[in-house]
Amino acid sequence: MVSQLQTQTQPEVIYPDSDGKPMANNTKQFRQIVALKENLEWLYADEPNVFIAGDLFWYPIEGSNTVVNAPDVMVVFGRPKGDRLSYKQWEEGDIAPQVVFEILSPSNSQKEMDRKLLFYDRHGVEEYYIYNPDNNQLLGWLRNEYGLDAIESMVNWVSPRLGIRFELSEDSLQFYRPDGTRFFSDFEIRQLLEQREQQLEQKEQQLEQKEQELEQERQRTKEMEDLLKQYRDRFGELPNS
User: Fold this and answer.
1) pLDDT for 173-187, tens place per residue?
2) What is the fold of 2-184?
3) Beta carbons within 8 Å of 237's beta carbon, 6+ residues apart
4) Rg (alpha carbons) of the chain, rounded to whole number
5) pLDDT cut 90: percent of the chain above it
6) DSSP class of residue 106?
7) Residues 101, 72: contact at Cβ < 8 Å?
8) What keyword terms does UniProt attach to this protein (predicted)?
């Protein structure tokens, strides 16, 4: 009986969806995160059960709100798209994100990144990538039977899960889709979004014009019906031709 009372009075665990910190500490980091996330969204746009998120709190253990991390970008196969305040793994079929990306900023300490690596290793991430845009350094880990193991060479590395290729030049990192086309830059993404907005506006204008034309046609039809009614009221039915 005592244990039942203790269970009933146990306080509800609150899982915060924000720590009050910004998504990125500088514009360079932010551009990299947004471009990577948006390109992955487009890559899997037709896959309803691939969930992609940026800077979303991931809680792997029910009842523990202190065991949490917010990957810069994470990809989860086997979970539906949709908005979430946080990713509570026990509510998601106990499926952990399979692929995680971190884009470093000067404020990220080695101790912090060591903790992240331990977290991702402990909670089942299959592929983990770190990119530092300031020194153009790319690191990666791939899960084997013992856990996450460092990838010896990232030269033209292809993600086993995503099929995307990493190409590290002298001063930048570029991703290529499985079909060989490169990921869009943040500037190109903005251009594409602007083009899509313009296309939508044009379609809306075309629809409005068609609606106006239909309304004019309905008005003309009504006028003809009114004239026909007036004629019948005055002279009777029209003679057969």
Assistant:
1) 999 999 999 998 777
2) tt1808, chain A (3.90.1570)
3) none
4) 29
5) 59
6) T
7) yes
8) Endonuclease, Hydrolase, Nuclease
